[in-house]
Amino acid sequence: MGTTVFERQRPAASVIERSLAGTRQSIFWLDDLPDQPHRPALRGTHDADLVIVGGGYTGLWTALLARRRDPDLRIALVEARTVGWAASGRNGGFCEASLTHGRDNGLSRWPEEIETLDRMGMKNLDAMGADIEEWGIDAEWERVGALAVATEPHQLEWLDDWAHDSAARGEDGVVRLDREQVQAAVSSPTYLGAVFETHSNALVHPGKLATGLARAAEERGVEIFEHSPVRRIDTSGDGVEVITNGGRISARKAVLATNVFPSLLRRNTLMTVPVYDYVLMTEPLSAEQRAAIGWDQRQGLSDLANQFHYFRQTADGRILFGGYDAVYHYGGRVRAAYENRPESFSKLASHFFTMFPQLEGVRFTHRWAGAIDTCSRFCAFFGSARDGKVAYAAGFTGLGVAATRFAGEVMLDLLHGVPTARTSLRMVREKPLPFPPEPVAAIGINATRWSLDRADHNRGRRNVLLKTLDALGLGFDS
Q1: Distance between CA atoms of residues 311 and 241, nearest Å
Q2: Angle between helices 403-416 and 114-134 (to 10 degrees)
Q3: DSSP state, 317?
Q4: N or C: which end of the chain has fewer CB within 10 A?
């Protein structure tokens, strides 16, 4: 097996240690918010037409889109903690148009629909930006596009194939950059080439988006209850009843937007697993440091490895750097203890200074982690239950910032009960295969993760396990 650039060009241990000294185990996006309103917990009995469980992007988009469809609808939303505290406030803030976690993943599963899915994804991203503007949400929305960079020679052929395929389809938003061109865009000794997607990606401040959506929803009459974990959902009567320790809401319909947390529907118990992702945030860069790396166009960036990194700038000149380590813990539980993993943060810091050695001396102010709701097809799935009274979406697998808006539209379509262009999609109608119970789940997931790492060390060549998963439709290719 070979080595990767991150093993061949490691920075000194002292550089890593100094950069992490004094780093806070805290989420920058939430620390960066102004004071938020204190919303009540659910107490007593309430009535609504639509009740939504979950105060992240999926639930909030659904509430606002439902209000747009019917201004007279009585809508209540119930959140276990506070708005946006989980995945919606912890992610990198990348908004990709793709609804299928990349065109290749969608093409391998729904080839006859991929053009429609691509078109719907772009329309959804456009609508997301328009909604943010219409509702006056200061979410630091930037339609700057994204660079996918090659750091190993064998990845250059992948870039060529990508650009050739896009050109053959007449797609004008994909630009192939050679080494000189990518270095002019972002100065890193590790960058050998890139593809620049000019308009299918945007950046956003995750915390400001979540809290801005909540404000917009409340201004339009949506009731939001926080600190109210839902214990069960009862559909024995004509409608639904969402029950917490302190109260209950009776409604005609319900939406479950619980992301990585245990589903309130038994049928979905094994449909997702939590995989932990780790992130670092630098201090604001000085003018000299910014000049040393270029990156004046502020595009989002990611590399092409199976275990990939993602990184971006913030409005105040910091760099967010995350990814690579995606860790599954035996038992598939969501626990705060899993968020502090020093070896992952040290690895990320090492890789950061390999990519940007000219930034030696920069310190990281924040480190955090979050659980990704991973499903076996690597993009969201949808459905209805309880005689059409409940709709759900989950399994976004780390690419849900924009896709959650599309999910809201799908769930409202399902509750309405009349077929639409969205609900007619095979991508929407089909479900992923469930994960097996433990210990098989841990063995399989960690064997796959090991195999992906080996592929990165072997010019991208996939071993027997990965080829078998590909043949079964369980392989990951984004």
Answers
A1: 42
A2: 100
A3: S
A4: N
Contact 395, 296 (CB under 8 A): no
Residues of the chain with pLDDT under 50: 477-478
pLDDT at 172: 85
Domains and CATH numbers, the chain: 5-32+146-198+273-374 (3.30.9.10), 44-131+205-270+377-429 (3.50.50.60)
Structure confidence at residue 474 (pLDDT): 67
The 10s digit of each residue's pLDDT in 145-172 is 999 999 999 999 999 999 999 999 998 8
Evaluate whether 94 touches 296 at the Cβ level (below 8 Å): no
User: And the tokens for 312?
Assistant: 């971006």
218 touches 224 (CB < 8 A)? yes
- Compute φ and ψ for 336, nearest 5 degrees: -60, -30
Q: Residue 451 and residue 449: Cα distance in Å, rounded?
A: 5
| Six-digit token string for 436 | 């097996």
- Residue 118's contacts (CB-CB under 8 Å, 6 or more residues apart) are 97, 98, 103, 106
Distance CA 478, CA 476 (A): 6
Go through 32-70 and write b for each residue having 16 or more CB atoms within 10 A of its CB, e for each that does not: bbeebeebeebeeebebebbbbbbbbbbbbbbbbbbeee
Q: Are 27 and 89 in contact (CB under 8 A)?
A: yes
- Measured between its terminal Cα atoms, the distance across the chain in Å is 24
pLDDT at 478: 43
Separation between Cα atoms, residue 120 and residue 412, nearest integer Å: 16
Q: How far apart are CA 424 and CA 422, in angstroms?
A: 5
What pTM was estimated for this model as a whole? Answer: 0.96
Looking at residue 472, what is its pLDDT? 65
Structural contact between residues 59 and 53, judged by C-beta atoms closer than 8 angstroms: yes
Q: Nearest CA to 373 among 428, 403, 334?
A: 334
Let me know the angle formed at the C-alpha of 91 by 86 and 95, rounded to the nearest 5 degrees: 125
**Sign of torsion over alpha carbons 373, 374, 380, 383:** negative
pLDDT at 137: 98
Q: Does residue 240 sit in helix, strand or coil?
A: strand
